[in-house]
UniProtKB/TrEMBL annotation:
GO terms for molecular function: NADH dehydrogenase (quinone) (non-electrogenic) activity; NADH dehydrogenase (ubiquinone) activity; quinone binding. Its EC number is 7.1.1.-. The lineage of its organism: Bacteria, Pseudomonadati, Thermodesulfobacteriota, Desulfobacteria, Desulfobacterales. This is NADH-quinone oxidoreductase subunit N. HAMAP family: NDH1_NuoN_1. It is an enzyme of class 7 (translocase). The gene is nuoN.
Length: 475
């Protein structure tokens, strides 16, 4: 087909942003201070630009790059998340002077990799896009002044990432050897049962491990709590949200090749069950807020897989809707963490004591985010879990649905404990003073909370778009 610029307009614009930031990173340090003023505006412009190509469709680069509604849905989600993450990172007390341009350049480069990942439909292209999104984070995580904990987090993320990458490449070699193609549309015509193609089953399972790592799914979750705790609050905000979008986009495309009852689907169901249960139980024992949200990520990775194991259009749509909702509600909670920790320190639950009297607006935003993560109405978290559970019911994994409901009840304890500390505990003498934030800061935090509520009250527009997107790969 003829090449049309509007097909990859989001990628072109994001590349321009990366190049501008690269130029800023090599000029005088004094000019770097201005980056925090205009980069949020550039990130915001990327949101409507993704909508321009929302209805475009076509194949590019020898059919290795697919533009369809599914890819554009996730690119839009990445653009929204990137804007929120950039806006949140404009004030970083732990970032060394003169590194603003470098920091935002790596953020933009990682987001660009995620956009590539959303459209990649060939396994080697998928692998390269995944690594592009990952390498930037290897540089970002240690950027926290002279904190030893940040260096430890960076080393752990790199080592675990390298190990999982090796596993994924090993699995890719098995797929190529058994199926003789790396294109998803051709792989969908192949056999994926243990009886007929055991090497292919092993290969795909190992290749999926790379995306389990990004999703922080058990047993590839070990890095999440430590990396969240060791990295700066603003970096943890990004790492805990946007990479999940790219992982789910690829998992949807790859699992759509499978048939109900396939061994790989059963493996996904078991991993989802363990991830939900382990993540929620481990979070119960945590006092550090970022570690709580780290184990929360492990649990939510299991929830997302509930929609995938259904292998239906509704299940894939529910997974897409839920991961977008998760990104927004996690950004909402981290927004409060970054504002309360004005000096960049890690927060314990006791640091939230009396937040309703010190900063009532932030306390309200935190409450909305926590209620959404639990899955209480009328938040987007409730509707997301409802879509997941109803889509997967009566598809052979009803036990998984019941377990997901039980885990939701368990998660109430540690999510609502943040609200309890904010609203019912008395402020201690050692409580962190809340700096006077500009009004627009509270406005943007409120906007995140409103978006989470809007997805709960009127989810139809976004869910219908997710249904249409899933329809591009499922009849």
């Amino acid at each position: 087909m003829d090449f049309r610029t509007e097909l990859i307009l989001p990628e072109i614009y994001q590349t321009i942003v990366v190049l501008l930031l690269f130029i800023c990173s090599i000029i005088d340090n004094k000019r770097n201070l201005a980056v925090t003023r205009w980069i949020p505006w550039l990130a915001f412009i990327g949101i409507p630009l993704t909508l321009v190509s929302i209805d475009c469709e076509g194949d590019l680069f020898l059919n290795a790059y697919r533009i369809d509604l599914l890819s554009q849905f996730f690119k839009f989600s990445v653009a929204v998340g990137f804007f929120a993450a950039v806006l949140n990172a404009t004030r970083q007390p732990t970032l060394e002077h003169g590194r603003q341009s470098d920091y935002f350049m790596f953020l933009a480069l990682s987001a660009l990799g995620l956009m590539f990942l959303a459209s990649a439909v060939e396994l080697i292209t998928i692998y390269l896009a995944m690594e592009m999104a990952s390498y930037s984070l290897y540089s970002l995580i240690p950027l926290r002044a002279q904190e030893r904990q940040a260096a430890e987090a960076g080393i752990k993320y790199i080592l675990f990432g390298a190990a999982v990458t090796a596993i994924a490449l090993y699995g890719l070699s098995y797929i190529v050897a058994s199926q003789h193609t790396t294109y998803i549309k051709d792989l969908a015509l192949c056999e994926w049962s243990w009886a007929k193609s055991p090497m292919a089953v092993i290969g795909l399972t190992l290749f999926l491990a790379g995306f389990f790592y990004k999703l922080a799914l058990f047993p590839f979750h070990f890095w999440a709590p430590d990396v969240y705790q060791g990295s700066s609050n603003e970096t943890a905000t990004y790492v805990s949200t946007l990479p999940k979008l790219g992982a789910v986009a690829i998992l949807i495309r790859l699992t759509s090749m499978l048939k109900p009852g396939a061994e790989i689907v059963s493996i996904l169901a078991v991993l989802a069950a363990i991830s939900m249960t382990y993540g929620n139980l481990a979070a119960l024992a945590q006092r550090d807020v970022k570690r709580i949200l780290g184990y929360s990520t492990v649990a939510h990775a299991g929830y997302v897989l509930v929609g995938l194991v259904a292998l239906t259009r509704e299940g894939f749509a529910a997974a897409g809707f839920y991961v977008l909702t998760y990104v927004l509600m996690n950004l909402t909670c981290f927004w409060v963490v970054c504002r309360v920790a004005a000096d960049g320190r890690n927060l314990d639950l006791e640091d939230l004591n009396g937040l309703h009297s010190r900063a009532p607006g932030l306390a309200l935003v935190l409450a909305v985010g926590a209620f959404a993560l639990v899955g209480l109405p009328p938040t987007g978290g409730f509707m997301g879990k409802l879509f997941l559970l109803t889509a997967a019911w009566d598809h052979g994994y009803n036990w998984l649905i019941i377990l997901a409901a039980v885990n939701t009840a368990i998660s109430m304890y540690y999510y609502l404990s943040m609200v309890i500390h904010a609203y019912t505990k008395d402020q201690t003498e050692a409580a962190l003073p809340i700096q006077n934030e500009p009004k627009f800061s509270l406005v943007w935090g409120g906007a995140l909370a409103v978006s989470v509520l809007a997805l709960g009250v009127i989810p139809a527009p976004v869910f219908n778009m997710a249904m249409k997107a899933a329809g591009t790969i499922m009849p």
